[in-house]
Amino acid sequence: MNRIRNVAMMLAAVLSLAAGASHAEDAQDTVAFGKKLTTNNCAVCHTFGKGEPNGQGPNLFGIVGRPFASDASFKYSAGMKAAAPGKVWDAKLLDAWLTDTQTVAPGNAMTYFEGDPARRQKIIAYLSTLH
Ligand code: HEC
């Protein structure tokens, strides 16, 4: 009886380990796919490496946790600056921004949106790794 219980417990432990591993793989896939989406869709205007020069838009290294429109080396639009007070970039604000930048900062100059929530989530997962 005891042996059967031990085997059952071991099996449960192995299964939960396997589930953990596959979650980790899912997270890795999400970030890898997010990187691809970001490279394909944002890199025409943004750079992502530490200290890289701005493009048409500001460098986005460390964007998660950075105050809104706060890169001193970038000349933000008036709309962007007007919307900045009190805002810090987090996943929720990035999601709103990529859905429709004009609801976040009316009159801003970024002419891009991503309508697919799953793709936005992957892009944001990748951006969160840039620290
Ligand atoms: C066509 C060019 C273009 C594309 C494509 C683009 N952006 Fe932008 N982005 C800009 C510009 C320009 C600004 C600055 C807007 C302003 O000052 O009004 C900006 C601003 C931003 C900001 C605010 C940064 C800050 O310092 O507060 C974030 C975040 C951002 N973009 C993320 C993205 C992401 C993520 C993508 C891809 C999914 C993307 N952008 C695609 C041009 C672009």
From TrEMBL:
Which residues are the signal sequence here?
1-24
Q: Does the keyword Disulfide bond apply?
A: no
List UniProt keywords, sorted A-Z.
Electron transport, Heme, Iron, Metal-binding, Signal, Transport
Keyword Lipid metabolism among UniProt keywords: no
What range(s) does the Cytochrome c domain occupy?
29-131
Query: Pfam families in the record, alphabetically?
Result: Cytochrom_C
* GO MF, any single term: metal ion binding
- SUPFAM superfamilies in alphabetical order: Cytochrome c
Name this polypeptide is given: Cytochrome c2
Q: Which organism is it from?
A: Caballeronia choica
